[in-house]
Amino acid sequence: MEQFARDARITTIYEGTTQIQALDLLGRKVFQLQGAGLRLFLERIDAFCQQHAGNAPLTEFVAPLGKLARQWSEITQRVGVAAVGNPDEIGAAAVDYLFYSGYITLAYFWARSVAAADAGARSAEFKQAKRATARFYFQRILPRTEAHATSLRAGAASLMDLPEQLFG
């Protein structure tokens, strides 16, 4: 998982900027495809959350993950509707959307990792370490989605309010 995170980070350097990657994600991979891939991924997350809803040891991961997956869908729709009337909305939302999506995606894989460890024949220490690391992620990293969600809901207006002649 750590290698995937490093690879994902280096691609923004190879491509040039995080903004380019973010615009590609939101503009091309989400909106140009009418959210088809995102819907499939959110369905997977939802199925995982439903499958483990009654699993008490996974509740601390499944409950917030399910909530964030629903919120992700709502935020995507909100940005899409706003972008129909104002194309600046995509550019304004793109970077926050990229990070927001990434945090939730990693949360999903951490929750799956804990579920797989619990179901596997690994040592108790391994399972404990997996759970502790996932707990750290859910408690210390995943809450960053709240700030990104707030920014995404704010829209493009405050970014575009400053007249061009005032730059400089």
From TrEMBL:
Coiled coil feature spans: none
Pfam family, one: Acyl-CoA_dh_C
Entry keywords, A to Z: Oxidoreductase
Keyword Transferase: no
InterPro entries in the cross-refs: Acyl-CoA_dh-like_C_dom, AcylCo_DH-like_C, Diverse_Acyl-CoA_DH
Record-level Gene Ontology MF annotations: oxidoreductase activity, acting on the CH-CH group of donors
Cofactors, names only: FAD
Residue ranges occupied by any Acetyl-CoA dehydrogenase-like C-terminal domain in the UniProt entry: 41-163
Protein name, per record: Acyl-CoA dehydrogenase domain-containing protein
